[in-house]
Amino acid sequence: MTTFDSGPLDRKLTALETAARLGEGRVSEEGLASAGQVVERARERRRLSADHTVVGFFGATGSGKSSLFNAVTGHPLARAAATRPTTSEPLAAVWGADGSEALLDWLEVSHRHQLDGRAAGTEPSGPWSRLLGQRWSRKNDQPGGLILLDLPDFDSIAVRHREIVTRLAGQVDVLVWVVDPQKYADAALHREFLEPLAAHRGVTLVVLNQVDRLAEADVGAVTASLKGILAQDGLARVPVYPASATTGAGVEPLRSAIAEVAERRSAASERLLSDVRTAAKALGAGDAGGVPAGVGKADEARLVDALTEAAGVTTVVRAVQRSYRMEGGRRTGWPVVRWATRLRQDPLRRLGLRRGDDPQRGTNRAPASAADDPRLHRSSLPERSPAQQAQADGAIRAFAEVTGAGAPDAWRSAIRRAARSHADTLPDELDQAITSTDLGAGKGSWWWHVVNALQWTALVAAVAGLAWLGVLALAGYFQFEMPPAPAVEGFPIPTLLVFGGLAFGLLLALLMAPLVRLGARNRARRARRRLRAAVSRVARDRIAEPVTAEIERYGAFREALAAASGRH
After folding, report:
1. Which residues, 6 or more positions from 285, have their beta carbon under 8 angstroms from its beta carbon?
2. Cβ neighbours, 10 Å, residue 555
3. Which residues share a beta bridge with 54?
4. N or C: which end of the chain has fewer CB atoms below 10 A?
5. Which of 373-391 are b and which e, b meaning 16 or more Cβ less than 10 Å from the residue's Cβ?
6. 472 and 479 in contact (C-beta within 8 Å)?
7. pTM value?
8. For residue 110, which phi and psi values (nearest 5 degrees)?
């Protein structure tokens, strides 16, 4: 048994299925439905006989389609009469019975006539038996099969007849359109059938029937006029056969053309390939063929900048700076007044951002409890203001517009949806990114320890001097004889200790204040970089990557469409 030429057809069907899957929710439902129907129909047709070529005769009321069908088959099978319609059910003339039953069942054709000499009342000496026998003997070891279908009128007033014609127009392998000199330009025929099936011109034949009603000199003119109309329908290369079922003129050339198609046994594959191309075109309707700009570094940087502000990073950075200054003052300030700074709450603690790195608990230690786990912790940052929310939404929208520029409208909408796919959880994720960032707030500068030691040394010296002077004063009060205090350049050492310790401590605190402010600015810049990197990871994971995936999906969709339609 002959099989279908599965290589190109398999690839194109797979490509069409892929394009339909990628286009779900992004292209028209009509296009998706058409692609699904083509794939399903192709699977069914390929499951059935590849040895048989199915040729359908289509025509309008009064075109003489049934009479021509009888003339071509050489047998009075179809009912032809003056009353209309003459054909209410599809009628099949079959050559080669083996394998035809399942195919005709799929076509839903119950009226069948076997004409290869094995059916009762049919002789093998008929015109088709002789013609096909000659061709098969020259070309093939095993003869194939041919099925001719006479169908109801496509313009029948009976809705069921039109439904049958429409269904079989999508199932037969070869379409033979029968027109007459009076209605060959009928708008319904061209608008509803020929124009939509223009992609199937390789498996389409047109017959100008009833030429016996024309003067011999007019046949050429009417045929040329018909060819011109077909060219407007996209069927410029479709052969047109002038014929007359009444006189038999032109019947033999038409019969030979059909026999040649049956001999090649490729009409079914050609029809399916045309169906795939047509479905691919419908699936890509509205696709201007543009290529989206994609995610650029500058675009992502602008998005991160906007989200950084909207997430309250500036507030956190200010808190880091104030926290450093407060802690630096405690470590390097004059010990006598340090207690005053402890009355103020740490800005980071007020924001809920000082836990595991608290200097009183050590730095970089594991969370002491689940409450310290940043993944489970929420900051106490103020709720985003409407202006911040609008800023974030605007940045996401602008990012989607810029990255999706150039794509068709449907896919640009999909890119916008991808950009906002995590909009509901984005505030929480940004907050968690901030709480999980190591702000370095509990890590003091190394020189704090040196200054702190000097401060305490100066304070101890001042206290020692005061104690010394106190002892001398108390001894004098009780009239004890005490040796005089040693002096340096005429200044008693106890006095020097007091004033020197106090002056040194105060001066050291004043000198360290600018260094603390400078360190606070450096710490704030470092915290901003880390926070921005954390926000950047969220923006990349929740916005940039979904957008990139959508753009890559569009690229794969276009590639699949190109493969299905045969375009490069």
Report:
1. 27, 28, 31
2. 15
3. 147
4. C
5. ebeebebebeebeeebeeb
6. no
7. 0.74
8. -100, -25
